[in-house]
Amino acid sequence: MADEVRIAGFGARRQLGQGRRRLGTAILAAAACCALTASGVPALLKATYADLSLRLEDLVQTRAPGPAARIALGPYGRDVRLAGEIGEGTAARLGTLLAAHPEVTRIHLTSEGGLVDEALAIGELIAARNLATYVPDYCVSACTLAFVRGATRSLVAQGRLGFHAPYDAGLFGQILQAEGSVELAAYVAAGVEPAFAAQALAVPSETLWIPEAVRLIQARVATEIVETDRFPDSTLDDDPSPAGARAAILRALPLLEALDGRGTILADIANAYLDGYRAGRPEGEALDALRGRAQAEIARVLRGADDATWVEIGRTLLRAMRRAEPEACRAIGGEGNLLLAQEALSAGSGGRADAAPRALLARAVGQGGGALSPARSAARPPRDCAGLIAAYARALAGPEAGATLRALASHPPRPAQEATALPR
Fold it and tell me: Per-residue DSSP letters for 294-327?
């Protein structure tokens, strides 16, 4: 197995009843189950105990339902987004939306799983409409039963499809692994390789198998692995609000948190990202636009930093240039690109971000000054990485280092190949 992890909230559960009793009944039921779970329970009683746990849960309903999955029509009416737990009534809600919008051709699925019956019903809707399915992040457990019914089944690179055996939720959320013949038949009927389906349903219910992309393609679970420029952005499907947009841009670019005290900069960046999402901008394009706007705002803030701060910025940029690939090196030095500097400095650190860029940005925000005058010499810096590194080292060793470094970082380097009228 490529990756097996403990689950936290993921589930492929059977449909349970709707009965609910008063608190006293639940207490008596809990006492009965606790007696059976004591050490030394004979194996013969395990099935009886599981049945009793399920019946009592069906009767008293101790598990509170989670928030309803969000189902929304995407831009231009061609895409539907389904995000969240697949609970009771999810398929009916999706069916109503699809009936009202015959132009829909694709459904985005971002879900931790849920009720098997509902996921199978969603799969029937997908198959009946010949919809394409797309996972922009993760689709695990019961969600995969819907995903495999797509006419084409696209998974974003680095996305996750996760599998395990179905389970029934006993009293107080107890996991009781269930027999998976229904799920096996559904996977195989959708064209999934039988051996893969059997392997997926043999994974214990309390863990999760996340196969590698090549295995998913071989087993006909997914038909293609795609980059983020193929389909509309789905990063805000869970929460398409200004608060959701703010959270999304901070997840993508944690450095931006240092701008929180600088007027409306952070809110403006988040609102622009939200506008792109609502307009159906492809995810890769949306992230490129986010980075571009964020760096422009960061550069504006840094230009107002004092000379002492710019000496520290220059040292940090120089350290990053020495670690970066040539193209990134040129952007770090020529643009003073602190986003790329942090990425270069954080590479190989196990996901821990280098603290220096954020501290320097926060320091510049705290100074809050306007743009200072650049150094007297406004000559363009070298456009190659080695030349930029040498120029930064000279500036740090010379007089008026802060002003000189500010000037060096204010000129995006020209392309290495100038425009030409000759045919390419």
Answer: HHHHHHHHHHTS-HHHHHHHHHHHHHHHTTS-HH
pLDDT score, position 86 = 95
DSSP-assigned letters across all residues of 108-156: EEEB-EEEHHHHHHHHHHHHHTT-EEEESSEEETTHHHHHTTSSSEEEE
User: Interior CA angle at 53 toward 48 and 58, to 5°?
Assistant: 125
Among 60-74, 218-232, 332-346, which is the least confidently predicted range?
Answer: 60-74
Beta strand residue intervals within 170-307, DSSP E: 175-177, 207-209, 224-226
117: CB partners within 8 A, 6+ apart: 14, 15
The dihedral formed by the CA atoms of 24, 28, 30 and 31, expressed in degrees to the nearest 10 = 140
**36 backbone dihedrals φ, ψ, rounded to 5°:** -75, -25
Whether 122 and 109 have beta carbons less than 8 Å apart is answered as no
- The first and second tokens of residue 160, run together, are 């996750």
What type of residue sits at position 282? P
Find out whether 163 and 140 touch, Cβ atoms under 8 Å: yes
Across the range 301-328, mean pLDDT stands at: 94
Cα separation, 146 vs 186, in Å, equals: 10
pTM of the predicted structure, to 2 decimals: 0.72
Distance between CA atoms of 386 and 389, rounded to whole angstroms? 5
User: Shortest CA distance to 174 belongs to which of 22, 39, 66, 56?
Assistant: 56
User: Any residues with CB less than 8 A from the CB of 139 and at least 6 apart, and which?
Assistant: 109, 110, 111, 146, 147, 159, 160, 161, 162
- Which pair of structure tokens corresponds to residue 185? 């038949």
Distances in whole angstroms, Cα of residue 17 to Cα of each of 10, 33, 127: 20, 19, 27
Select from 69, 73, 70 the least CA-distant residue to 114.
Answer: 69
What is the C-alpha separation between 409 and 398, in angstroms, rounded? 16
Q: Rounded to an integer, what distance in angstroms lies between the CA atom of residue 244 and that of residue 12?
A: 27
